[in-house]
TrEMBL record:
Signal peptide: none annotated. InterPro entries: NAD(P)-bd_dom_sf (IPR036291), SDR_fam (IPR002347). Keywords: Oxidoreductase. It comes from the Bacteria. The keyword Oxidoreductase applies. Belongs to the short-chain dehydrogenases/reductases (SDR) family. It comes from Nesterenkonia lutea. CDD domains: SDR_c. This is NAD(P)-dependent dehydrogenase (Short-subunit alcohol dehydrogenase family).
Length: 252
């Protein structure tokens, strides 16, 4: 199994920072051949740092032609695709449904949902063509797929939708050896959650603000790797990993 793992090909979106960077780093360390995708080329180049198993493809995944180029590039370079970590996303504006502007809503939907679906679409096309090898898609959801934070309508809506996308991919991929799972991560140490742990902290459902606990991003990456390394005969459908003591259970 070790030789098989060490020859796997993965695409990681949003690889330039945060969870995507941590996952890509772990994959490269484990012998995966990794396509590093993100809008900004400089942090991708810094992460690759000349690694022979890293392929940098600067990509705006909200643009259909660039998504096609990304997955064609992976296949052309290494001949196949075994894992997609569908990770890129944005938190969106702080707003309730009556406050959010249509343009802001559209921007969050475009990246968090439509782009994720189009990356899964492109990945499935490659994976179907290599049947019976198939492949695996791991969607980065959020605790917002289970319970929203206040004033997070656009983000929460997209993450609930990602759960539906995950289940649909898992069902539709069965005949082709393609599996799909979702990881929902709460308060790992990244730039996106800095606002929850500094200053007044995160807005709570009762109107208070509090600084919330976090956990190391590498622990989230380790959980993603567990999903990615699961043999084809099994699938991890869902993982929820949070900072110990954060207000998730009982949130609302």
């Amino acid at each position: 199994m070790t030789d098989e793992l060490n020859s796997r090909v993965a695409v990681v979106t949003g690889a330039g920072s945060g969870i995507g960077k941590a996952v890509a780093t772990r994959m490269l360390g484990a012998g995966y051949r990794v396509v590093l995708a993100g809008r900004r080329e400089e942090p991708l180049r810094a992460l690759a740092n000349g690694h022979p198993n890293a392929l940098v493809l600067s990509t705006d995944i909200t643009i259909a032609e660039q998504v096609t180029r990304l997955f064609t590039g992976a296949r052309d370079r290494w001949g196949r695709l075994d894992v997609l970590f569908n990770n890129a996303g944005v938190p969106g504006p702080t707003a309730s449904v009556d406050e959010i502007e249509p343009e802001a809503w559209d921007a969050v939907i475009a990246l968090n949902l439509t782009a994720a679906a189009m990356c899964a679409r492109a990945a499935m096309k490659v994976m179907k063509a290599q049947n019976p090898r198939g492949g695996r898609i791991i969607n980065n959801g959020s605790l917002a797929a289970h319970a929203p934070r206040p004033q997070s309508v656009a983000y929460t809506t997209t993450k609930h939708a990602i759960s539906g996308l995950t289940k649909s991919i898992e069902l539709d991929g069965r005949a082709y050896g393609i599996s799909c799972g979702q990881i929902d991560i709460g308060n790992t140490e990244t730039e996106l959650v800095d606002r929850f742990v500094t200053g007044p902290g995160a807005l709570q459902p009762d109107g208070r603000r509090m600084q919330e606990p976090t956990f190391p991003v590498d622990e989230a990456a380790r959980a993603v790797m567990f999903m990615a390394d699961t043999p084809p005969s099994a699938n991890v459908n869902s993982v929820v990993i949070t900072a110990a003591g954060m207000p998730f259970i009982g949130r609302g």
